[in-house]
């Protein structure tokens, strides 16, 4: 240690800034599990509303138990399943209880397909008889109990099957399924990724009908990825991937009658029906609710389908000049009146409609967003939700009468509160964190929010950080381009306002997203702390187009992804550069996915502002990305060619002056490595020097083994060498 550094450390110790035992976070500690966050296991709230089930694993024996606990006391009251006591099954990974809690669906040998989909071998375990029944010999998808738990419907080889648990008989519902051609009851790649669901079939309340969506992918273009693996010759993975402006799967809706084995086709031609992003049966066994939308996704229809006639009726049309978000918030009351969320007044709020689609009333109002909808309690007539009404970077939990009166603040401590309610809305488990506090879980009374008991906290992790040099995350707003943009800053612990520091900007910037939030951040948050103690100021700014500041703020980037967000990040960097303690010649930026798209654009278009940039898994032209996401914000390339090309990093490579690192996984099924390869070629032809790295057979997350440690070591070294 040199004399100057020793003197500085002694000064800081005397000043009380650091203590003798404090040390800096290292990358090895971040990725070897040194900092262990305690989370609450996924709970299943039992039908009685007073108990919940948790899947536990004995670390020594590997035995799994499905245990039931009392909400009020936290004490175990029962064990539903003990894997060591099940004849014919050595282990299981996950579980799903039937609606009546008489049977459990147990999953084994799970294998991931894409982001949300998987294949597995499943068993039904009868909790009373202790009988075990294998659903199918093959690995299947999305097995789902009928309401009375007598049957299980599932997907196999792009077809739908039904297993009768009592008789053991299996019935094939559809027969035309074929890889890369026809899919029945399971979504295609782009629906799974962008509409966020996989199971495209549903049982009605009586269990005598199944509604399902059929996907005809025949004309959808295919995408191929090389899988290098360990063999002498690489293999290829080929799948249907509709890029912006290309042909999507043709979707159709069908009703299957279990008793007669007959299928009815539902004619949706009189409605916006290019996409069918949601379907679910209402409490009425003869009424199916279906959501459909046009290709632009700016006219979302709610349809009711009569199961007897198979005729559809328009109940509600939610329109917007830009787009309408598809959610899972639709909730039916007993009489088929329903709750719906919409941005139609400029902010995302809750609405109550009657069964004919007539507005009864707007339940929530104000210049703030409903950020999560938790449900409706039929007994108290109250709606439970999370919102940003205590500040756009905070989240609070509230309840309100369905008539819009008698609002109750249930968990509103400044920071981020998130609730998981018991089945009867007697209790909720609140998850709280803020920038300085790791997650704390408490059991709360749903009537008034009073804390009944602490369930779990992360005090051990918080105490552990006493051994490390940790800087405060400072929240502020930055006046940029006529807006007050949310931002945060992390300074070195020994920050000296008379010195000048390099700034490393982190961002995502995608439509409706939020990176500046008052919540605990592990992972990259630890990395940012490490960089701060290396002498960098970390800054994050949420530009125009991001979420939770109203419909107009979010949707102003329509048809121009990468224009206003880039302008804001460049202007933000320039504004930061005017501060006395910032070295304006040493400002860098990075991002992943959409953030990589942004980082690339920023160093190209802000060549005189940014000294360096890192882009991980970037989109480099929206022409290369999928149809549903891209067209939601950009319409098609045929309609909006200038919007696609003017804001593409490929159009600005000639402006590069600083140091640039681009990284991608070769098996990224989401943002294809094609994006980076085309960017590399454009930079080469522009005779621009840069650095790049490809991680073989890694997907969009770029992880596995030492991959993350290697990647973050590479990025850290690049920052130190170039900023």
TrEMBL record:
Boundaries of every Dipeptidylpeptidase IV N-terminal domain copy: 98-439
Gene Ontology biological process terms, A to Z: proteolysis
Name of a matching Pfam family: DPPIV_N
Entry keyword Transferase: no
Highest taxon in the source lineage: Bacteria
Signal sequence, start to end: 1-20
InterPro entries: AB_hydrolase_fold, Pept_S9_AS, Peptidase_S9_cat, Peptidase_S9B_N, Serine_Prot_S9B/DPPIV
Sorted UniProt keywords: Glycoprotein, Hydrolase, Protease, Signal
Any one GO molecular-function label of the UniProt entry: dipeptidyl-peptidase activity
Domain Peptidase S9 prolyl oligopeptidase catalytic residues, every copy: 528-723
UniProt protein name: Dipeptidyl-peptidase-4
Provenance organism: Leeuwenhoekiella marinoflava
Record lineage: Bacteria, Pseudomonadati, Bacteroidota, Flavobacteriia, Flavobacteriales
């Amino acid at each position: 240690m040199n004399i100057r550094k020793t003197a500085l450390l002694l000064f800081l110790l005397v000043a009380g800034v650091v203590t003798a035992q404090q040390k800096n976070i290292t990358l090895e500690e971040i990725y070897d599990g040194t900092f262990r966050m305690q989370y609450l296991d996924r709970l299943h709230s039992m039908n009685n509303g007073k108990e919940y089930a948790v899947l536990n694993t004995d670390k020594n024996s590997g035995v799994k138990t499905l245990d039931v606990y009392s909400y009020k006391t936290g004490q175990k009251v029962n064990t539903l399943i003990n894997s060591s006591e099940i004849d014919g099954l050595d282990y299981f990974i996950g579980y799903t209880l039937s609606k009546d809690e008489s049977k459990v669906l147990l999953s084994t040998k799970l294998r991931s397909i894409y982001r949300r989909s998987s294949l597995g071998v499943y068993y039904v375990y009868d909790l009373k008889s202790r009988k075990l029944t294998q659903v199918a010999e093959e690995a299947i998808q999305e097995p789902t109990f009928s309401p009375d738990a007598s049957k299980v419907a599932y997907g196999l080889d792009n077809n739908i099957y039904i297993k009768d648990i009592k008789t053991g008989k299996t019935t094939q519902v559809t027969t035309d399924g074929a890889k890369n051609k026809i899919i029945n009851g399971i979504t295609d790649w782009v629906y799974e990724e962008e509409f966020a669901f996989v199971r495209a079939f549903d049982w009605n309340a009586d269990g005598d009908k199944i509604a399902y969506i059929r996907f005809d992918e025949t004309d959808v273009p295919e995408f191929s990825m090389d899988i290098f693996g360990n063999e002498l010759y690489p293999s290829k993975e080929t799948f249907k991937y509709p890029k912006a402006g290309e042909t999507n799967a043709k979707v159709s809706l069908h009703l299957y009658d279990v008793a007669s084995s007959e299928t009815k086709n539902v004619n949706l031609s009189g409605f916006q029906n290019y996409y069918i992003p949601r379907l679910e049966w209402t409490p009425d066994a003869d009424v199916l609710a279906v959501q459909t939308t046009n290709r632009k996704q700016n006219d979302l229809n709610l349809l009711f389908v009569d199961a007897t006639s198979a005729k559809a009726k328009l109940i509600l049309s939610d329109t917007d000049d830009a787009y309408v978000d598809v959610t899972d918030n639709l909730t039916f009351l007993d009489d088929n009146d329903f709750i719906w969320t919409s941005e139609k007044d400029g902010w995302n709020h809750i609405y109550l409609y009657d069964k004919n689609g007539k507005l009864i009333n707007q339940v929530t109002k104000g210049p703030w967003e409903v950020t999560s909808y938790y449900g409706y309690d039929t007994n108290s007539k109250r709606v439970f939700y999370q919102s940003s009404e205590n500040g756009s970077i905070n989240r609070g939990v509230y309840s309100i009468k369905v008539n819009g009166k008698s609002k109750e603040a249930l968990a509103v401590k400044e920071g981020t509160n998130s609730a998981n309610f018991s089945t009867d809305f007697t209790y909720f488990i609140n998850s709280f964190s803020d920038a300085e506090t790791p997650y704390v879980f408490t059991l709360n009374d749903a009537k008034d929010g009073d804390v009944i008991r602490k369930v779990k906290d992360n005090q051990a992790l918080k105490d552990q950080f006493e051994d490390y040099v940790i800087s405060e995350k400072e929240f502020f707003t930055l006046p940029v381009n006529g807006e007050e943009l949310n931002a945060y800053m992390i300074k070195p612990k020994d920050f000296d306002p008379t010195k000048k520091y390099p700034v490393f900007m982190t961002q995502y910037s995608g439509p409706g997203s939020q990176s500046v939030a008052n919540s605990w951040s592990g992972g990259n948050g630890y990395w940012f702390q490490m960089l701060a103690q290396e002498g960098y100021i970390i800054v994050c700014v949420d530009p125009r187009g991001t979420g939770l500041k109203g419909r107009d703020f979010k949707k102003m980037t329509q048809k121009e992804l990468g224009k206003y967000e880039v302008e804001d990040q460049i202007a933000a960097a320039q504004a930061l550069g005017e501060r006395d303690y910032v070295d304006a010649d040493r400002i860098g930026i990075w991002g992943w996915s959409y953030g990589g798209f942004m980082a690339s654009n920023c160093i190209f278009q802000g060549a005189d502002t940014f000294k360096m940039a890192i882009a991980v898994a970037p989109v480099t032209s929206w022409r290369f990305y999928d149809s549903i996401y891209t067209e939601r914000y950009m319409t098609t390339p045929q309609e909006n060619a200038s919007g696609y090309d003017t804001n593409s990093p490929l159009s600005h490579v000639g402006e590069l002056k600083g140091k640039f690192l681009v990284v991608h996984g070769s098996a990224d099924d989401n943002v294809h490595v094609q994006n980076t390869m085309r960017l590399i070629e454009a930079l080469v032809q522009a005779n621009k020097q840069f650095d790049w790295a490809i991680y073989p057979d890694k997907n969009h997350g770029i992880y596995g083994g030492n991959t993350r440690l290697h990647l973050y070591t590479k990025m850290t070294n690049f920052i130190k060498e170039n900023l």
